[in-house]
Queue: 2 jobs
Job 1
Amino acid sequence: MTPALSIQGLNVAYPAYGGRSVEAVRGLDLEVGAGEIMALVGEMGCGKTTLARAIMGALKPPGRITAGSIRLGGQDLARLGEAEFRKLRGRDLAMIVPNPRSELDPMRPVGEQIAAVLRAHLGLTRKPARERALATLEAVRIPDPVRRYNAYPHELSGGMAQRVVIAIALACEPRFIISDDATSGLDVTVQAQILDLLARLVSEQRTSMLYITRDIGVAAHFCTRIAVMHRGEVVETADRDAFFSAPRHPYSATLLAAFAHSPALRARWTRPDASAEIPERGCRFALRCVRAMERCATDAPALSVLAPGHAVRCHAPIRHMAVPA
Ligand SMILES: Nc1ncnc2c1ncn2[C@@H]1O[C@H](COP(=O)(O)OP(=O)(O)OP(=O)(O)O)[C@@H](O)[C@H]1O
Ligand code: SF4
Ligand SMILES: [Mg+2]
């Protein structure tokens, strides 16, 4: 089956004046299938937002794509100009970010903001755009949508404003949605409701989603597949159950140990004296990895398929994950 989104060999760099350019994304390969919710997890600064913005054609300067392709349908987004991106964003591609109020125009009723997207991208006239905007408000479970259509963003709670942002993102039934930490600022109950809502809409619309989070618990609950990112690279991708029952990359094991708040488990997978440096050659995790061998210092491992749907970037993937007593 052709994936909805296919990224191959993607490099994104932030060139620095006089200094070394930061390679925030390096040789990244990732495929997201139709109707799939792919979690993208990894520690602070590993390049998640940079990847999301590269897909959206919205890298912050001086960031730029230096190699690779990002295929969505028949198009390579890595080669698209701003004018073409403007047509795609909102219609085929959408992104949801935290702090929904900053995404909304404070001077305009929220219903009109949804209708404006529908008019711009689908060419609807006023009345059908209003009707569809109302239906979208209903779809994201906004109570009393007719009244809320005319509300201004400051009149809505944080959870309601996030629903409106989701309504705008989903209004044109885009093929691909990215959520970058979008639910992290919400309280736990509202977050659970928004996640349920997103999952339902993704399945009804056969949309695909890249769900970026540092919360592995949310990824476990909500996503169908998991991709682990480490220092600009994808180091493991797997179906959710395979990943949580038997992670194969040492960094994935470290992440899970950190999430479990288990110092014993963490010590098992991470060197206590680990350096924060990224080695110039070899595996980018080598200085922190308890399994590092001589070869890891010189040969960069490739992302290799170990089982159907399960790929790992490691010379010595974990075979068994011991359960601590
Ligand atoms: N505008 C920028 N200019 C220069 N470097 C940047 C810029 N934005 C990000 N970077 C660098 O790129 C790397 C990846 O940053 P990015 O924001 O993509 O990480 P992240 O995984 O989203 O982190 P977080 O979990 O904190 O959101 C970091 O080293 C960061 O310093
Ligand atoms: S390639 Fe070597 S250093 Fe890198 S994660 Fe695997 S065992 Fe550890
Ligand atoms: Mg980020």
Job 2
Amino acid sequence: MKVKVDYRKCLKAGECYYNHPTIFQRTENGYPKLLVEEIDTDDLRQEVEEAIEVCPAGAITLEA
Ligand code: SF4
């Protein structure tokens, strides 16, 4: 599975990179950059699911 961020929805709230720095990294303009795209372990999947829950913009998705 792949994690995606919809930058048209992202509010730069930072919940993803502050809480899940193994997957998301803050960039200079405040948007998250993906450090990992392919989600191939249960641990990563759990982290992404948590990030999806806390993202206030609904900008993070996990796609097959
Ligand atoms: S938590 Fe959501 S709104 Fe906030 S920076 Fe990450 S993707 Fe953007």
